[in-house]
Amino acid sequence: MEEIFSLGNIMLWNDFSCKDDSLTGEMAELFVSKILGAAVVKLKYGDVLYAVFTTKSSEIFQVETVKGIKYFRHKDLDDLKDDIKKSKSTPI
User: Fold this and answer.
1) Whole-prediction pTM value?
2) Any residues with CB less than 8 A from the CB of 44 and at least 6 apart, and which?
3) What's the domain range around 17?
4) Residue 84 lies in a domain
């Protein structure tokens, strides 16, 4: 069985710029799991888990949902790694 860990809630944007005027007002929950030894980042939006993709910017990530492409910002990969380490003690 796949272990999945919550990294917390994030705000979603409609465009890649992630400027305040493109905020959707929607929140989603970020998860990480380990599949075949690799960390996989997923986003729960509505009741569906979506794959997370990187973009040209190391801070901005993309998710293709049924309501269109959404973006979210995460400071950097080091913070994400720290969040993964912190979440290992609280499986979902």
Assistant:
1) 0.72
2) 28, 29, 30, 31, 50
3) 4-78
4) no
Distance CA 1, CA 9 (A): 24
Residue 16 covered by a domain: yes
pLDDT in tens, 28-79: 999 888 887 777 889 999 999 999 887 777 678 889 999 899 988 876 555 6
Is 40 inside any structural domain?
yes
DSSP per-residue codes, 15-82 = STT--GGGEEEEEEEEEEEEETTEEEEEEEETTEEEE-EE-SSSSEEEEEETTEEEEEE-S-HHHHHH
Q: Considering its fold, how many domains does the chain have in total?
A: 1
In a domain, 71, yes or no: yes
